[in-house]
Amino acid sequence: MLLRHKADRRTIAYMVVTTAVFILQWTVLDWNPFVWFFYLFLSVAVTVIAHNHNHLPIFKKKGLNNIVDYWLTIFYGFPAFAWVPTHNMNHHNLNNKEGDYTLTYRLTEHNHLLMILFYPTMSSYYQQKPIRDFLKNLWAKNRRGFWLCTFQYVALAVWIVGGLILDWQKAILYIIIPQQLGLFAVLVFNYVQHVHADEESAIDHSRNFVGFLNVMLFNNGYHTVHHDKAGSHWSKAPELHAAVTHKINPVLIERSFWWYITRNYFLGAFIPKMRTKSLRLARIAREQQAASALKSQASAMQSDAESSQADASQTHYGAPAV
Questions:
Q1: How far apart are the first and last CA of the chain?
Q2: What residues form DSSP beta bridges with 250?
Q3: What residue ranges do the domains of the chain occupy?
């Protein structure tokens, strides 16, 4: 069997359907809103597939995985290899701690609509550095790997420019908009999965979305166990999540992605109790209180010691104690 896991038959099916719907829209159909919106969903799913593939390649044979990299690249809208330096090597090592290029609190500790809308642009900007560094390292140490990665840029450029030359209107509708929506969505996913969680916690470092959208997007919502066992296949996530659910703070388990978005970013703008509360800030406040208490205790001990020393000095050099 060529696949590492049988469950990736579903992954290949998604990619085949995505490709087929693209061809159908470009060659046969006039613009159909129902088909187009379905295609937009598939474009978001492609970003999740790209993420999964870079954690655990779909096929056993490297050559087939290289082909999948290019297949994903043209529908994903960015070279698929970029997940390695930005996500696998950086985000999974730091998990929203300082130094993570996808940091959620870089500008503010608040979790509001303006931040979630701006985050994809900000995160994309900061992720360019590890990509450049990764390519420089490949050029120095693995020239074949460098060219495999670089030609993903070439393939993507040919795909977009070729589409614009053939029919610029179709290219915008069926190539550029779906790519950009997918890239925006996957960064939004990263933001909501980490914002106001506690990056220093062994278990409460991520928010989990466990509803219908999670099922449709390859269990991507089980984010706690994804970080704890990044090498596990996406099909194993439900059982891994079930084993640790009781340990996770309930505020980090959401049944519905869309209700979370509505509640926090729209209703929360007017109703404060609808907003998320930062577990990160709560932990920092506890640490500051503990540090303040220790400082006060140390100061009191020092004061007592100085007082005792003064009494002893008076007894030794002054009048004899009665």
A1: 96
A2: none
A3: 8-277
